[in-house]
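Example S7 (structure tokens).
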């Protein structure tokens, strides 16, 4: 198995100070609750984020601050994440604690969810990275490439969100009264 490397923890400030930051925004025709439900999920990630092959939550439900999960990536890579910020239906942020990806010292993601109108939600996604070694010199090239890739992923994610929002809500079933 590939060696796991420890990464440094971060705070919310890292999303403004990291040497490499990529921010993408979208507005989807769904409620904040629908969007947030997909962030809590484990299968939707593999449908829109091309590098993710599997997500396994290692914390008990309901998920909240300090929830953890393991994420399998293409090429047999693995990251372990801890959610250090959690505001239900508004914002979640995690950082990677351990990774098989070489030359990373810090990696974090921030998801800000904002209702902007009836059945419309804005998602602001920020990826913040601090590379080590020669990789840090590639930041000026890596940032624009990641932004291009992430925009493609967001197009897929928007379609998924809007398809989920268009599904009718399950109707409660009436209780069957026993016959006398």
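Recovered sequence:
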């Amino acid at each position: 198995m590939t060696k796991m490397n420890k990464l440094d923890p971060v705070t919310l400030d890292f999303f403004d100070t990291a040497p490499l930051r990529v921010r993408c925004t979208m507005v989807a025709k769904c409620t904040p609750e629908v969007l947030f439900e997909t962030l809590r999920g484990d299968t939707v990630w593999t449908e829109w984020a091309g590098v993710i092959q599997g997500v396994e939550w290692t914390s008990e439900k309901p998920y909240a601050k300090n929830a953890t999960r393991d994420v399998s990536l293409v090429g047999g890579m693995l990251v372990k994440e801890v959610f250090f910020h959690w505001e239900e239906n508004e914002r979640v942020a995690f950082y990677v604690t351990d990774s098989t990806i070489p030359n990373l010292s810090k990696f974090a993601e921030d998801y800000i969810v904002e209702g902007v109108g009836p059945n419309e939600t804005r998602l602001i996604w920020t990826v913040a990275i601090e590379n080590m070694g020669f990789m840090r010199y590639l930041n000026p090239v890596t940032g624009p490439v990641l932004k291009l890739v992430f925009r493609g992923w967001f197009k897929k994610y928007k379609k998924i969100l809007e398809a989920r929002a268009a599904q009718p809500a399950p109707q409660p079933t009436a209780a069957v009264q026993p016959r006398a």
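Notes on this example. Residues 5-26+36-166 form a domain with the Alpha-D-Glucose-1,6-Bisphosphate; Chain A, domain 4 fold (CATH 3.30.530.20).
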